[in-house]
Amino acid sequence: MSVEDVSKIDSIGIPSDNPNTVSLAISDHLTWDVPIEEHLYKIQEKINTYISFIESGEIYDVFPASQGTTRKIIEIYFKYDLPEQVVSFLDQISNVLQSINIELRYQTLK
Q1: CA distance 17 to 82
Q2: Other CB atoms closer than 10 Å to residue 75's CB: what's the count?
Q3: Which residue from 11, 14, 17, 90 is spatially nearest to 53, judged by alpha carbons?
Q4: Cα–Cα dist 88/80, whole Å
Q5: For the chain, what is the radius of gyration of the CA atoms?
Q6: pLDDT on residue 47
Q7: Which residues have CB under 8 Å from 107's CB, separation 6+?
Q8: pTM of the predicted model, to two decimals?
Q9: What does the alpha-carbon distance between residue 18 and residue 3 come to, in Å, rounded to a whole number?
Q10: For 46-90, how does the pLDDT look when each residue is reduced to its tens digit (9 = 90+)?
């Protein structure tokens, strides 16, 4: 799965060092070619899918091990370095997610 499959959860698990946390990962292999807005839209739609998955409680049906956990993290793994516009976008999303008790993390894999 990838960021292009906006209606799918790419990966879900519980970190071995933090059993109270559910980590939901997004894999983004796309380049930042123009128009960047299309790529950002896919990220936004993918995150919206993850929010719905968590808030609806579907997470507990699909991944029963998440029952009783209190911390949810959405992690995005990018293949390519992030332009400043993307970092600003992700920071804004992070602030919104914090208001609903979801953490956002992201990194570029090299």
Answers
A1: 28
A2: 16
A3: 11
A4: 16
A5: 14
A6: 97
A7: 75, 76, 77, 78
A8: 0.93
A9: 26
A10: 999 999 999 999 999 999 999 999 999 999 999 999 999 999 999
User: Average pLDDT over the chain, rounded to whole?
Assistant: 94
Closest CA to 59 of 43, 41, 72: 72
Whole-angstrom distance, CA of residue 74 vs CA of residue 97: 9
pLDDT > 80? residue 1: no
| Rounded Cα gap, residues 102 and 108, in angstroms | 20
71-78 β-sheet, strand order = 11-13, 21-28, 71-78, 102-108
CB-based contact 3:28 (threshold 8 Å): yes
Of the candidates 64, 48, 55, which has an alpha carbon nearest to the alpha carbon of residue 12? Answer: 64
The identity of residue 85, as a single letter, is: Q
